[in-house]
Design a protein that fits this description.
Layout: H1 2-50, E1 53-56, E2 59-62, H2 66-72, H3 75-107, H4 113-125, H5 128-138, H6 145-152, H7 172-197, H8 201-209, H9 214-225, H10 227-242, H11 246-252, H12 265-275, H13 279-313
Antiparallel strand pairs: 1-2
Helix pairs in contact: 1-13, 2-13, 3-7, 3-10, 3-12, 4-7, 5-11, 10-13, 12-13
């Protein structure tokens, strides 16, 4: 009888001990969740809330979608959004092929490969503001280093670079794209290099046995094996493009001089919030930026990653 009474008591004690151990682990991770709630979840909810209001005499008045209607009828906002898309697309179309080419060359290099890795990666760990200041002097139209070299070669007329807001290969957008590629190229090269080195050499040996040449092995083995790498770089590159701020702000200020040609959506948000003190409108801009990035992430996952996962599970 005593033994049968002790069994439920022992089970209760085991359950209590298990709950206590679980609570100890939750106590360790609780500070992280608290900080995440304070600095991420609450500001996000507050941003969504502010985007539906307008400040009237220090009070918040509900206006529904009026802030969003105001944005999509604002040519400055539309221009900033188009600049963001254009600069991001130009950056990705240049840096991804270049990164892959450099990674392929470095992968076949036998002498001092680590030296080249360090040299190419140095811009990534250098202050972006410092690099942007140097490039501002390099691309200066009258006495910049680049135009001085072109003048010595007899080029006439000289490109205006950061003083030219037009859509051309020697305008401000081209200069900003060159700057972005120069900073990020080493990072993209190293990620591609890691992807190339993860491809099993047995695949290439089998291709040689089957009579495949270099281009066939590249097309049917290397590129398909790098699909996850492409997905990762396209996704992170798109996020970086839509959040680009410090280098363009250094070269063109919050207005994206000249003629707002360098103003991105984040710079527009900064100008509205901290120069115009319109936090409701800037919250609407932040919500639109959030929805764009969420849509891009979902599209990339569904179109590319999901296909890869299906292939691996077969």
């Amino acid at each position: 009888m005593l033994h049968s009474d002790m069994q439920p008591f022992g089970a209760v004690m085991q359950m209590t001990h298990r709950i206590r151990r679980t609570l100890v682990w939750y106590a360790f991770i609780a500070p992280v969740f608290v900080l995440f709630a304070i600095f991420v979840i609450y500001p996000t909810i507050k941003t969504f809330q502010l985007s539906f209001f307008r400040e009237v005499a220090t009070k918040q008045q509900f206006v529904g979608l009026a802030q969003y209607q105001r944005l999509f009828t604002d040519q400055v906002f539309i221009g900033a959004l188009l600049n963001t898309i254009l600069l991001g697309a130009a950056f990705l179309l240049i840096v991804i092929p270049l990164g892959l080419i450099l990674a392929s060359l470095l992968n076949s290099l036998k002498y001092a490969p680590n030296l080249f890795k360090v040299v190419y990666f140095l811009p990534q760990i250098t202050s972006t503001v410092a690099i942007a200041l140097i490039f501002s002097y390099i691309f200066q139209a009258d006495w910049g280093l680049l135009n001085n070299g072109l003048r010595a070669l007899g080029v006439d007329p000289l490109p205006l670079w950061l003083a030219d807001p037009r859509y051309n290969l020697t305008g401000s957008r081209a200069a900003a794209t060159i700057l972005a590629v120069w900073i990020a190229l080493g990072y993209y090269m190293l990620i591609f290099l890691a992807g190339l080195q993860s491809v099993p050499t047995e695949f290439y040996d089998a291709a040689v046995v089957d009579g495949a040449n270099f281009m066939q092995a590249w097309w049917y083995i290397t590129l398909p094996s790098l699909r996850p790498t492409f997905v990762f770089l396209i996704l992170t590159g798109t996020i970086d493009a839509f959040s680009r701020f410090s280098d363009l702000y250094t070269m063109g200020g919050p207005g994206g001089t000249p003629a707002r040609s360098l103003q991105t959506i984040v710079m527009y948000l900064y100008q509205i919030a901290f120069e115009g003190s319109d936090f409701n409108l800037s919250s609407a801009v932040a919500v639109i930026l959030f929805l764009i990035m969420l849509s891009v992430t979902i599209f990339n996952f569904r179109a590319l990653l999901q296909r890869e996962f299906r292939r691996e599970t077969r």
